[in-house]
Amino acid sequence: MTATEWRDLGLALVVLVVAAGLPFFGTPYYLTLGVTIAMYAVLATSWALFSGPTHYISLATAAFFGLGTYVTAVGIDHLPYWLLLPIAGVIGAVVAGLVGLATLRLSGVYFVIFTLGLAEFIRQVITWAQNLMGTRGLYVLTDLGEREIYWQLLGLAALVFLGGWLIGRSRLGFALRIIGDDEEVARHSGIDTARAKVMLFMVPGAVASITGAIIAPRYVYIEPALAFAPILSFTVVIMALLGGTGRLWGPLVGVIPFTFLTEWVARWFPNQSTLVMGLAFLVIVFLLPKGFVGLIDGARARARGAFA
Amino acid sequence: MTTAATVLSLRGATRRFGGLTAVDEIDFDVAEHEVMGLIGPNGSGKSTTLNLISGALAPSGGDIVLRGQSIGGLPAQAIARLGVARTFQLVRLLPSMTVLENVKAGAVFGHRRRWGWDADAHAMRMLERVGMARAARSRVGQLTYIDTKRVELARVLASDPRVLLLDEWLAGLNPTELQEGIALIRSLRDEGRTIILVEHVMDAIRSLCDRCVVMASGRKIAEGTPDAVLSDREVIRAYLGDDDA
């Protein structure tokens, strides 16, 4: 490891320790905000691991997230809670793998539509199954409070960052960058492009599913419309793109301001929140095509140019 | 030359696009250490033949054999791993990466797979080989045209291929660059590499190729030494039309 890598690792540990202390010094309101930020940090960072290098926009986050919440909702009465998280992860990875095999040979826009449809499809299947059983939703009653949920999400975030860092240094990460640049060159260089894409797509699938499983106790009552809300998928995409997908820490830079923005809008313009989401999307596309990361890198390059 | 082992053979290789037969039952062999020119007028099926060999397209019929193993119809990545590497008619580099990383792509995933320090060192050697070591840290957007071609060639060489496919590698170079380009390919030939060249530059064909296969309208119309095929009446007719034959 190089000196910069040690420095980054040290910095990440400090941030993690400070963030872990939030329940001790923050008000309950900040803890709630912390849960939201941690949740979106996990989702957006893992989303960008796949979509950053490949440029495939996945709207399947809600599908995996919803599956995870249902793993907890169905399993909580039968299995120990700690076992549910890995189960949710495996289910998310398997579903992502199947979806990937079926769709990643498709080019961009077909993939987007398919992933959006996937969340809706799973939601309808669960609604139908629940109707057969004569229920509308499931209760998740645990003694897990806001701070336990927060710490779990923080731990998951640490794992996602560690995993992302390792993937970035691996052959798989290098293969994905080549695929993102030119798939034809990738294939002719000996990369099994379909396999690489499917393998990496399983990461956000598993992570979103585990996130859903962790969040479920917070909802108390789980129903399909809540668990599979498409707005979640869109929010994750906007946050990740606002931050920038070129760097591992990029999405985080989008998650934090966007969470405060949505908080502020929800407080002052409760009826126009969708409008603000739309505006944010326009701003990202027009002004920040590479997100805050692009802005920062551009400023750095200019500074270097000025001093050179 | 007859004693050298055959590395690649095409037997009745055919590719149809709807009603058009772009490559029509082509047969030829390439021996080890041989430089073979694949020539012919525009639209004669040379590039399509190259695409069949590299796996960019699957043949509609016939077979392609690499060292005794049938590769016709295998996906491009499988063929690349078995040791067939190619350049593209329009240079394809990886725009978000440095020159060194571009070359590393060949070293990491190709026929012989390297990783880490070994891959970096090997990629650097390949850059030195094509005379581009000075630009290792540059972005590919800053390169001149011939330099992009050199980097692409280095990427292809980095995989230690058994057969090298060069698709009009010399096209579009100015006269000075052309001399450099020919010298570079000749140095590959002197290393004993097995190469198939699709080329229009006649000087290059005469000075580089051991043997040529001439295609016209998807068929093989001649095969032999460059001098022999270039004076062949049917070849002249294919290039220039009946009046000049």
Report on this model:
The complex is a heterodimer of chains A (308) and B (245). Chain A is globular. Chain A has helices spanning 3-20, 22-25, 28-54, 61-75, 81-103, 108-133, 146-169, 171-181, 183-188, 193-219, 224-227, 230-243, 250-268, 273-287, 291-307; strands at residues 138-139, 221-222. Chain A has 308 residues and is mostly helical. The mean pLDDT of chain A is 89. Chain A has a two-stranded antiparallel ribbon with strand order 1-2. Chain A starts with a helix and ends with a helix. Chain A has one domain (11-230). In chain A, helix 4 crosses helix 10 and helix 8 packs across helix 10 (193-219). Chain A is built from 15 helices and 2 strands. The relative contact order of chain A is 0.16. With 245 residues, chain B is an alpha/beta fold. Chain B has 2 domains: 1-83 and 162-245, Rossmann fold, CATH 3.40.50.300; 92-159, no CATH class. Chain B is 36% helix and 25% strand. Chain B contains 9 helices and 10 strands. Chain B has helices at 46-54, 76-82, 99-109, 117-129, 145-157, 175-190, 202-208, 226-230, 233-240, and strands spanning 6-17, 20-31, 35-39, 61-66, 69-70, 84-86, 163-167, 195-198, 211-216, 219-224. In chain B, the strands form 2 sheets. Chain B has a 6-stranded mixed sheet, sandwiched between helices. The radius of gyration of chain B is 18 Å and the shape is globular. The relative contact order of chain B is 0.17. The model of chain B has no long low-confidence stretch (mean pLDDT 91).
N to C succession of SSEs of chain A: HHHHHHEHHHHEHHHHH
What is the β-strand count of chain B? Answer: 10
Overall spatial form of chain A: globular
> Helix share of residues of chain A?
over 70%
Our count of helices of chain A gives: 15
Low-confidence stretches of chain A: none
How is the biggest beta sheet of chain A arranged? 2 strands, antiparallel
What is the secondary structure topology, with strand pairs?
The complex is a heterodimer of chains A (308) and B (245).
Chain A lengths: L2 H18 L1 H4 L2 H27 L6 H15 L5 H23 L4 H26 L4 E2 L6 H24 L1 H11 L1 H6 L4 H27 L1 E2 L1 H4 L2 H14 L6 H19 L4 H15 L3 H17 L1
Antiparallel strand pairs in A: 1-2
Chain B lengths: L5 E12 L2 E12 L3 E5 L6 H9 L6 E6 L2 E2 L5 H7 L1 E3 L12 H11 L7 H13 L15 H13 L5 E5 L7 H16 L4 E4 L3 H7 L2 E6 L2 E6 L1 H5 L2 H8 L5
Parallel strand pairs in B: 3-8, 3-9, 6-7, 7-8
Antiparallel strand pairs in B: 1-2, 1-4, 4-5, 9-10
Helix pairs in contact in B: 3-4, 3-5, 4-5
